[in-house]
Amino acid sequence: MRSPSQTQLLAPRSWLRLLTWTARLRLTLLYGGLFLASGALLLTITYLLFQDFTDGEEWLAPSFFSGAQNGVVHQPGGQVQAATSTMDGVQAMQRASDLHQLLINSGIALALVALLAFMLSWYVAGRVLRPVQTMAVTARRISASNLYERLALSGPDDEFKVLGDTLDDLLARLQTAFEAQQHFIANASHELRTPLAWEQMLLQVALADPNATNAALREACEKVLTASKRQQGLVEALLTLATSERGLDHHEPIDLSVLAGAVLLALRPEADQRHVEIAAAIDPAPTSGHPALVERLITNVIENAVRHNIPGGRVHVQTTAADHRAVLLVSNTGPEIPSTEIQRLFEPFQRLETARTNGLGGYGLGLSIVQAIAAAHRARLTAEPRPGGGLKVQVRFPMATTVHPDVESPDPVAHDNTTSRAAPSMAARLAASRVSAQGITNP
Predict the structure, then answer these.
(1) pTM of whole model > 0.70?
(2) Most buried of the four, 200, 236, 282, 352, by CB within 10 Å?
(3) Mind giving me the DSSP string for 210-225?
(4) Residues 194, 327 within the same domain
């Protein structure tokens, strides 16, 4: 019994590849099989037509006519019937012999042409599948280090060209995502490494001082604790961003007005501290999604409007239902933002330079989390600079189709009742948070 290595020596590797069930082999068998079946059908039709054409015709061999001319058949009296019978028998034998010979010759011709057809089919299948082989070789060569390479198929605008262009678009998106991931990892590492190094330095300085007092050690510990809380907030923001980009696994009816009212109440002390006035126009805006993520979106947008503002500035928050959409609109005064910088602000760890210099710089993740949550909820997020400074952010959620009865009802009367029940509660909450020039007012 031969070993596998001996078998490989007996059969070349190139011939072993021909025996594998490849697409080229399948196309060859398909093309050749169709030609063989068509040829066999044509041969059968020709044979039947020839048989029908010669049926009942005089089909005498040349030897018989030569014998008849020599007087072999022309005999007097009762021998005429015998001669006629002999003539019919010879004719039938000659006809059968010719049909048999026709069948044999046609079969040999069909076999030779079929062999040629299989060889041509193998060649044509290889030519047809050459773009696929080119794409396979190029795709196998492309890795994380050379995602910039493209298939770049040339030729007619056929199915293979469309497939190659589609794969090039996919590679372009993968390159963009991979570069964004690398950029994100580098920024996240920098944001985490800097406070860790600072904490380590504080502890080393405090421990290296042999005359350090309890007050000094306590101060160092408080500084480390503050820095660790900031890192905890950064980690939570990163987890929220990752959860938002992963997609939603939970849906339930929500109302933007309820969530926005709760966020406004929570941000009232910070607005007071920064002397920022918040004007709210809260109307029911039912939608569906993940309540915690939507609340995080509203919080980040309003926090961004409050923190990146000017003393005595103003923030306007509005929720409404329009054009089959639940709309959240937040606009604020503040420093001027170039329109070319808007898109960059929604990328992770991107901040305006003024945010770093005036001490208002956060993690640079707030608006990127907003964008990720909006994408997960299939909401339309738009942002544009306001004339005179500040930013205007609008998030349009799909209107809820099935919501809780306390949020929306398909019956118009019930909907009005729901609104009338919800409005006093919201007005009461906003009235409780109303302050003079620096608080939250409901116009």
Answers:
(1) no
(2) 282
(3) TT--HHHHHHHHHHHH
(4) no
